[in-house]
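thought: user wants a sequence for this fold. calling inverse folding tool.
action: design(structure=
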């Protein structure tokens, strides 16, 4: 009887271990999918889909819609069956917004609509939480536009709002330069970071109106900061702003449209000399770490977390492995972080420690022409 019981226990342990290993293997062998925005030089280039399979050390890109010029910012709706892209046309005045229907099996895109962005050099897109409104930032135009999105990815232009002003950096802040348009998680507000005027514009959102945006307030950051990109916490109580020109991360509280600065974290090591260009900010899926890239001569990514005193600090800073890390994105499970390099023409994968949030560069990378944006598609 005892021998029989012992054998049963051993078999149970072996089966349990086998099942656990099987789960880990399945997780490891999964393929993560991203949309890639890039700058283009010929008709064969365009919007790319990147497939990343860690088990095979595989990073593979496929052009899912060729011919579009400079799709430098590409996003999808929550179902991933609609895709939206800017067409940043440098040679002529103005730019376009293009929408697509996406085949969920193949990833290929079919064009649904195209409208002007009503400003020069569109550089940022976001969807409202219900996927019914699209906002675009026009960098050189110094304005933002919003559109209604229907169930077939057709667009209706609703409103364009112009910013005015300048700041102390004569080379970069001679006029308004709208760099991002970000909806709050509850959809009641839209924040716009203006690099040129050193301001955050807070608009209230009422989708029942023909002109849904109304200026609620503005917030002046420090002169010369050059606010660039914003990301909200999931509950909308905080947001994190990357200051491009001074390479700082600034943490704000946000309540009913009221913006209050809580802390600034420099991305520069003491005594740093050289050009900077802080670019992207992302939150880990568990919201325990913030990640920020810095270009210029730095080419680094910083990992930021709260210490025991509830103060944000850099816990890791490491080279990104390429030149001009303009953008990066995390996988949905938080196990990996992929970085695009505009000037070294590649995408490089990093492993992320799920406990500490720290990163380790892998040997996995793929070459492609001037990748500048990554959007993580749902698993």
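)
observation: tool returned 379 residues.
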């Amino acid at each position: 009887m005892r021998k029989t019981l012992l054998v049963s226990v051993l078999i149970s342990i072996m089966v349990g271990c086998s099942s656990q290993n099987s789960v880990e293997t399945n997780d490891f062998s999964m393929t993560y999918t991203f949309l890639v925005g890039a700058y283009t030089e010929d008709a064969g280039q365009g919007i790319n889909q990147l497939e990343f399979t860690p088990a095979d050390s595989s990073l593979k890109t496929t052009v899912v819609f060729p011919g579009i010029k400079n799709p430098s910012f590409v996003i999808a709706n929550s179902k991933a069956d609609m895709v939206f892209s800017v067409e940043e046309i440098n040679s002529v005045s103005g730019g376009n917004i293009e929408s697509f229907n996406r085949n969920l099996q193949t990833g290929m895109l079919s064009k649904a609509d195209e409208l002007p962005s009503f400003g020069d050099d569109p550089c940022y897109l976001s969807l409202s939480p219900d996927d019914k409104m699209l906002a675009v930032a026009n960098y050189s135009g110094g304005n933002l536009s919003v559109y209604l999105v229907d169930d077939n990815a057709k667009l209706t232009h609703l409103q364009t709002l112009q910013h005015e002003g300048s700041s102390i950096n004569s080379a970069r802040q001679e006029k308004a330069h709208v760099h991002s348009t970000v909806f709050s998680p509850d959809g009641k507000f839209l924040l716009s970071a203006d690099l040129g005027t050193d301001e955050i514009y807070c608009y209230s959102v009422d989708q029942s109106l023909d002109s849904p945006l109304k200026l609620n307030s503005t917030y002046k950051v420090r002169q010369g900061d050059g606010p660039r990109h914003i990301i909200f916490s999931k509950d909308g109580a905080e947001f994190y702003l990357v200051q491009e020109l001074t390479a700082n991360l600034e943490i704000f509280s946000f309540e009913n449209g009221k913006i209050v600065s809580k802390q600034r974290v420099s991305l520069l090591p003491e005594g740093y000399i050289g050009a900077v260009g802080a670019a992207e900010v992302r939150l880990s899926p568990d919201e325990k770490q913030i990640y920020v890239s810095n270009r210029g001569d730095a080419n680094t990514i910083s990992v930021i977390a709260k210490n025991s005193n509830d103060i944000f600090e850099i816990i890791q800073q490491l080279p990104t492995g390429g030149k001009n890390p303009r953008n990066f994105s995390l996988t949905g499970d938080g196990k990996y972080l992929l970085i695009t390099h505009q000037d070294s023409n590649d995408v490089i994968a990093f492993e992320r420690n799920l406990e500490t949030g720290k990163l380790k560069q892998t040997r996995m990378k793929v070459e492609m022409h001037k990748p500048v944006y990554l959007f993580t598609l749902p698993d």
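thought: summarizing for user.
answer: Here is the designed sequence. The chain has one helix and 28 strands.
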